[in-house]
Amino acid sequence: MSLLRLENINTFYGGIHALKGVTLEVNEGEIVTLIGSNGAGKSTTLKTISGQVKPKSGTILYNGKDITNTPPHVTAFDGIAHVPEGRRIFPRLTVKENLEMGAFSVKDRKVIEERMERVFHYFPKIKERLHQKGGTMSGGEQQMLAIGRALMMQPKLLMLDEPSMGLAPIIVEQIFEIIHELNEEGMTILLVEQNAFQALQIAHRGYVIQTGEIVMTGPGQELLVNEQVREAYLA
Amino acid sequence: MIEQVLHTLPQVLIDGLALGAVYAIVALGYTMVYGILELINFAHGEIFMTGAFVGTAILLTFSGLGWITSMPAIITLVLVLIVTSVLTGLLGMGIERVAYRPLRNAPKLITLITAIGISFLLQDLVRFITELKNGNYILTGPNLFNKQIGIEASSILSVFNDASVKSSFFIVLGVAIVMMITLDFFVNRTKWGMAMRAVAQDRETAALMTVNVNKVIALTFFIGSALGGATGVLFAVQYGTIDPYIGFILGLKAFTAAVLGGIGNIRGAMFGGILIGLLEMFAAANLPIVSHGVLGAEYKDVFAFAILIIVLIFKPEGLFGKVTVEKV
Ligand SMILES: Nc1ncnc2c1ncn2[C@@H]1O[C@H](COP(=O)(O)OP(=O)(O)O)[C@@H](O)[C@H]1O
Ligand SMILES: [Mg+2]
């Protein structure tokens, strides 16, 4: 069953037509990746889903419910976590506070602590840095914290916007491993990447977006060997 | 000359502390709103003034009913503080809802001009209502704490003159300190305080954490305005006579305090307020002495604004500006 479905979404920034009839589907338990070059409309797709920008037309269905015009804090409450491009850690909150922000809608202190332990399981490094300010961490640590913060929401759908951006290859490797692990444990993931090679390797299915249009879709392994994809994104 | 300065020092410290506490809490309102919206809420000085009028009006009503003499003064004050801060808190929240929120995405200058417009509106509104009820827009409230207490500073150091304080000084200082500690606790130790800081740092991302940003902004205005209004009551209790224009200069000085402490920084605003209050009283007492009578005490205001200009030129981030290194 599809957990998330975008139907013919058109999104504008003033006069710029950023998404031109995007249709896309994420099934429960899948890793779906959306790849494309800079400015193609990947971030806009995620922002439209979470409600940061409103589409002019089209519908977004989540769990069968229309969330097309739902504001971001409600979308998040409904179980869609959005790890934005550039990580967006709260720089002057401590690492612990950043994690607590992820569980803002949770009232029970014990539940918050349990989830935090879960985050430490994936990212043991975070535990050593709890009382440091978020802004003082390295890029890789910030990315881990950003994913950890999203896990604090215990989302049904995890959307990641270019988690590998600007990170050393070894860190990227670790992060993709954890994304894979999360999925194995049942988390549905929508992964936006410019790093098409690694994204397609772990994805069940992929979509290729070009200047606001989905131009190709298929299983990850198929796109990985597709001539056009190889030429445009894997060169 | 040093000796003369020392003579008046005890009195300067006492008066400066009382005034500084008032500046500090009004400064909090500027700094909180700036921190979250990057808006200099010029109307905040007028919220303070409105608080002074509302508080005085309630006190005068109590007085008319004969309650002032039958109730302990401190209970009367606490009652007035609570009612006034709720009312001014709602007023601030209403202003945000009606005047600022529709302009959330407009250029900063437009919101700033709107804030100045709201200032004038409040001044005129308060003046109109007071004149209607009172026939005169200057108001003097009943004296709640007017016992004069002598402080024998000369017994500490012989060069000091004895100082004297109105008993209201201790009340003002005490209430101010309680308000500051409570706010500091709220902002740094509670969930909604954390949400406030998160919204101030990154509004979009805070929303992705299920935070209703509009609610947090409304809350910020409520708290800042409630504190500002309560401080208006303290001001009226300490200084007795008020008019609709007290919020203007006082607001500017409190804003100076906020800039001095690093705009957006709550503890900085408290420190800046106390410092400006002390400096101003020090200047008022000593300018005539130091300048051999050329500069009178009334030049003390120039002092506060000279500080504003100096800070803006040499240390625009303030004494406690944000220093966290932000790596990408
Ligand atoms: N806030 C904005 N205002 C105007 N144009 C924007 C804005 N954000 C993105 N765009 C434009 O929309 C298009 C898609 O951008 P984006 O979704 O960020 O691309 P990607 O994430 O794939 O790099 C680009 O042409 C970009 O310039
Ligand atoms: Mg992007």
Automatic annotation (TrEMBL), chain A:
Annotated ABC transporter domain residues: 4-234
Tree of life domain: Bacteria
Keywords attached to this entry: Amino-acid transport, ATP-binding, Nucleotide-binding, Transport
Any one GO MF annotation of this record: ATP binding
One Pfam family cited in the UniProt record for this chain: ABC_tran
An example Gene Ontology biological process: amino acid transport
Family of this protein: Belongs to the ABC transporter superfamily.
Matching PANTHER family: HIGH-AFFINITY BRANCHED-CHAIN AMINO ACID TRANSPORT ATP-BINDING PROTEIN LIVF
Protein name: ABC transporter ATP-binding protein
Species of provenance: Anoxybacteroides rupiense
From TrEMBL, chain B:
This protein's GO CC annotations: plasma membrane
InterPro entries (alphabetical): ABC_transp_permease, BCAA_transport_permease
Keywords: Amino-acid transport, Cell inner membrane, Cell membrane, Membrane, Transmembrane, Transmembrane helix, Transport
Membrane topology value: Multi-pass membrane protein
Transmembrane intervals: 12-35, 47-68, 74-95, 107-129, 167-187, 216-239, 245-263, 270-290, 302-320
Gene Ontology biological process terms from the UniProt entry: amino acid transport
Pfam family, one: BPD_transp_2
This protein's record includes keyword NAD: no
UniProt-annotated location(s): Cell membrane
Similarity remark: Belongs to the binding-protein-dependent transport system permease family. LivHM subfamily.
Protein name: Branched-chain amino acid ABC transporter permease
